[in-house]
Amino acid sequence: MNETINNILKRRSTRQYTTENVKHEDLELILEAAVNSPSAMNSQPWHFTVVNDQSILQEISDAAKEIGKNHPDKQMQAMANNPHLHLFYRAPVAILISCKDNVAEGLLSCAAATENILIAAQSLGLGSCWVQFVELLFATKNPIADSILKKLAIPEGYTFNHAVVLGHKASEVTTQKKLKSETITYLK
């Protein structure tokens, strides 16, 4: 089987990581894959903020969980109230993805870049997980979010949307995805 297809088929969300740091060279390759993603009208509307500082990741996790405690969705509330859940799964690095404001199909373009990050990480033997929950923190104006945004130095005109965590897998995830048969239609 072709190596690219093999990496796509083997990729799973990783939620347990070792404390080993991601090599800078690997991180550079992953980011190169991200910026070479397709984008609507070649807008390249993304900004990537790489965070290795565990205290910042903890601060974001705690603040987002606090907001999530009042979320209308019961599953989100349960996650927010779980004292053992760290929204970044204590991974050694997180890439925060922000999207340029008022760009046509910007979020779709950022999603394509995120997929490239996930596949590139898999190809390098790293685990990864797409993290959306933290968006709750920045979706509303509040003093804690404003303070954290200043630390993150996200450029003006960009809005944080989601994150990807990366690291060395604590164990191999071997479960197979159960495919939904109704998700594909062939017309011949």
UniProtKB/TrEMBL annotation:
Keywords: NAD. Pfam families: Nitroreductase (PF00881). Residues 8-168 form the Nitroreductase domain. It comes from the Bacteria. The keyword NAD applies. Transmembrane segments: none annotated. This is Nitroreductase family protein. It comes from Candidatus Cetobacterium colombiensis.
